[in-house]
UniProtKB/TrEMBL annotation:
SMART domains referenced in this protein's UniProt entry, alphabetically: S4
Stretches the record annotates as Disordered: 1-20
GO biological process, one term: enzyme-directed rRNA pseudouridine synthesis
MF-aspect GO terms: 23S rRNA pseudouridine(1911/1915/1917) synthase activity; RNA binding
Record carries keyword RNA-binding: yes
Sequence ranges assigned to domain RNA-binding S4 in this UniProt record: 42-104
Organism: Pigmentiphaga aceris
Name of the protein in its database record: Pseudouridine synthase
Family: Belongs to the pseudouridine synthase RluA family.
Enzyme Commission code(s) on record: 5.4.99.-
Keywords from the named record: Isomerase, RNA-binding
Catalytic reaction annotation: uridine(1911/1915/1917) in 23S rRNA = pseudouridine(1911/1915/1917) in 23S rRNA; a uridine in RNA = a pseudouridine in RNA
Length: 340
């Protein structure tokens, strides 16, 4: 299972975080400047950089390009717009993208099942779970707030665990603070059942257990690592090969993985540490072999205790189209025939 790096939400957190604020956006801030007669004529972005040094040059250029700056009442033609003494500039500050992080947005995602206390979502490939740097909108969280407005009263819109953007499959979302606390504690106690199907490079001849702590890679910040880890945390993955095959001349194995812990990129890192990176997981040494264009990992099964009655709830989700296409393209090896 994969989690967003450096998140305040981790499965060994003692308590859920405090609720995020969902206040109305503040009114836009408008600045007006009249250029003095002593001003030396120059391009607009350079003038604004002098007038508003608290903002970066790139941000100011973005405001100009998105028509947030007027010169003498007319929208500026661009960053190179020539400014002269006596010109009047009107700058309307654009909200930073993070200000929209907790806004409801129509985002498409399938809901497998729901109750008054929880939802089970089948997260599509390419959907980011939680807003963060580079993805301040269009996330699952935004979609949850749009479809279930009462989730604005629950921390992180009820999200208790996460999947990577390019990992598909099942997630449980809490609909109340009490249910969220209960589910987080189940994750802490390692009683939530999570099974994944993965396609990995090479032939994995036998199953096993990987017990290697994972932390941020000391050399490559976007990677996680078991041997160059910064502040590593315990991580345990169980894996079992299901069948062997060949894809465009490359040996591959379908592997079932079961998690005890939930660290960032855990399955990806642990399988790579065995010399069997996920197919198309180029960050960890896997090759992209058509039709596999993203890491071949899917959260197929999920089991948890219902916070309302302690009954086990179990769900499964079929493979997404791209992973099924990869499966269908593999020449599977009939080992029983080879033994005859």
């Amino acid at each position: 299972m994969s989690f967003i790096p450096d998140s305040p939400l981790d499965h060994d957190a003692s308590e859920p975080a405090e609720p995020a604020e969902f206040a109305d956006a503040p009114e836009a801030v408008v600045h007006e400047f009249v250029l003095p007669e002593t001003l030396k004529p120059d391009r607009l972005d350079k003038i604004l950089a002098q007038l508003m040094p608290e903002h970066s040059r790139g941000r100011l250029q973005g405001w100009i390009e998105r028509e947030h700056v007027k010169v003498n009442g007319v929208v500026a033609s661009g960053v190179r717009h020539k400014i002269w003494p006596g010109d009047k500039l009107t700058v309307t500050e654009e909200e930073p993208p993070e200000s929209r992080a907790f806004s409801p947005e129509p985002v498409d995602f399938p809901v497998v099942a729901e109750s008054d206390d929880w939802l089970v979502v089948d997260k599509p490939v390419g959907l980011v779970v939680h807003p963060g740097a580079g993805n301040w909108s269009g996330t699952l969280l935004n979609g949850l707030l749009h479809r279930y407005p009462t989730l604005s009263q629950v921390p992180r819109a009820g999200i208790v665990h996460r999947l990577d953007k390019d990992t598909s499959g099942l997630m449980v979302v809490a609909r109340t603070i009490q249910a969220q606390t209960n589910l987080v504690r189940q994750l802490q106690a390692r009683t939530v059942g999570r099974r994944y199907v993965a396609l990995v490079m090479g032939h994995v001849m036998q199953g096993g257990r990987v017990d290697l702590p994972i932390g941020r890679d000391a050399r490559v910040p976007v990677r996680m690592s078991v041997d160059r880890a910064i502040a590593p945390k315990p991580a345990i993955t169980h894996y079992q090969p299901q069948r062997f095959g060949v894809l465009n001349g490359v040996n591959v194995t379908e592997v079932m993985c079961k998690l005890e812990t939930g660290r960032t990129h855990q399955i990806r890192v642990h399988m790579a540490s065995l010399g069997h990176p996920l197919l198309a997981d180029t960050l960890y040494g896997g090759k992209a072999i058509a039709p596999a264009a993203r890491q071949m990992l899917h959260a197929r099964a999920l089991r948890f205790q219902d916070p309302s009655d302690d009954q086990d709830r179990e769900f499964t989700a079929g493979l997404p189209a791209d992973m099924q296409a990869a499966m269908d393209s593999i020449e599977w090896i009939d080992l029983s025939a080879e033994r005859e």
